[in-house]
């Protein structure tokens, strides 16, 4: 065997072994990559799950917390909301002196927060529903001043004071956005049926309570119901009897008018042509003008004809005298000793001569 043949065989074996080794390394690397994507290389330790206490049913003001009204559910987040509970045990107790009550309505599935329940042994009273530092004060209203009974616990109202002095009556907005705690003796903020009430209780500061107490003795207070999501305050001024002579447009109509004027100005600035409604209006006006012109022409023709007819001399028509009934005379004729009467026309001598 020649030397060149041996060298070629050895070189081929070496290259084949190198290719097989390289292929094996590539397959091993790809397998490791695939496995690392499907199965993590290191198992991540499972975080311990937290629980949170929620209401099983709707809880209203004054209800006592019992185990059948609450439930614990898994809370996936690492941190719990402030004031929430992780267990039912601190919320319920068989002892009366450790019982807890609801002071603000809680929906089904809503977490139980410490701000919505009483302390252990504390009763659900209006004082427990007050924000720390705030006071509760009541004013007397009627069906008109109390917005026809549509003011309910949880609403916010503006309180207006009407006074009458020597120079006339005037109205001031005393307080804005005051929270209603109760109507009559009902403090349930889930009440949604309007009813005519006699008193309304508000949550106010000490200074605001002083103003309300004084206002009840110097004038008449009225309530103005605010939107539930309204939180802005207005810069207001006193309204007197002199302001009643200035008519005002409703806010909604004023905004619509401003919007229409803005759109008209925008179209004018852009050089836009008349709209379809304008073209239709012009076409209708043209048709009406032509119709009215035709009617005017016909009326003129009729008046002219009437004028011409009035200028013709019309001979009066004399009615013929009714025919005269002929006068008759009774003539008696005696025949064979019997008298027979005949009616014969009576002829006047003048008429006979005329004939």
TrEMBL record:
Residues 1-19 form the signal peptide. The keyword Glycosyltransferase does not apply. InterPro entries: Pilus_assmbl_Flp-typ_CpaB (IPR017592), RcpC_dom (IPR031571), SAF (IPR013974). It comes from the Bacteria. It holds the Pfam family RcpC. Coiled coil: none annotated. Keywords: Signal. Residues 50-118 form the SAF domain. This is Flp pilus assembly protein CpaB.
């Amino acid at each position: 065997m020649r030397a060149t043949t041996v060298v070629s065989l050895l070189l081929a074996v070496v290259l084949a072994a190198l290719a097989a080794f390289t292929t094996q390394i590539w397959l091993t690397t790809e397998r490791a990559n695939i496995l690392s994507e499907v199965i993590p290389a290191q198992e991540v330790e499972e975080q311990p799950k937290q629980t949170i206490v929620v209401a099983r049913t709707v809880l209203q003001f004054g209800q006592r917390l019992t185990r059948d009204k609450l439930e614990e559910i898994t809370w996936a987040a690492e941190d719990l909301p402030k004031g929430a509970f992780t267990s039912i045990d601190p919320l319920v107790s068989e002892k009366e002196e450790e019982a807890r009550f609801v002071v603000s309505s809680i929906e089904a599935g809503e977490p139980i927060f410490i701000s919505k329940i009483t302390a252990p042994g504390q009763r659900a009273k209006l004082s427990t529903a007050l924000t720390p530092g705030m006071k509760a004060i009541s004013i007397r209203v009627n069906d008109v001043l109390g917005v026809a009974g549509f003011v309910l616990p949880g609403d916010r109202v503006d309180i207006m004071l009407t006074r009458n002095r020597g120079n006339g009556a005037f109205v001031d907005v005393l307080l804005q956005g005051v929270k209603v705690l109760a109507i009559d003796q009902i403090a349930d903020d889930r009440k949604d049926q309007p009813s005519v009430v006699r008193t309304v209780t508000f949550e106010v500061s000490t200074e605001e309570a002083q103003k309300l107490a004084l206002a009840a003795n110097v004038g008449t207070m009225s309530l103005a119901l605010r939107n539930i999501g309204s939180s802005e305050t207005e810069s207001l001024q006193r309204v007197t009897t002199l302001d009643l002579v200035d008519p005002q447009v409703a806010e909604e109509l004023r905004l619509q008018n401003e919007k229409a004027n803005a759109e008209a100005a925008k179209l004018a600035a852009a050089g836009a042509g008349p709209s379809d409604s304008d073209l239709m209006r012009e076409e209708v006006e043209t048709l009406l003008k032509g119709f009215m012109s035709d009617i005017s022409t016909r009326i003129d023709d009729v008046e002219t004809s009437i004028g011409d007819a009035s200028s013709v001399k019309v001979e009066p028509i004399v009615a013929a005298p009714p025919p005269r009934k002929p006068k008759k005379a009774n003539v008696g004729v005696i025949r064979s000793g019997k008298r027979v009467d005949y009616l014969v026309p009576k002829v006047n001598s003048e008429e006979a001569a005329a004939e």
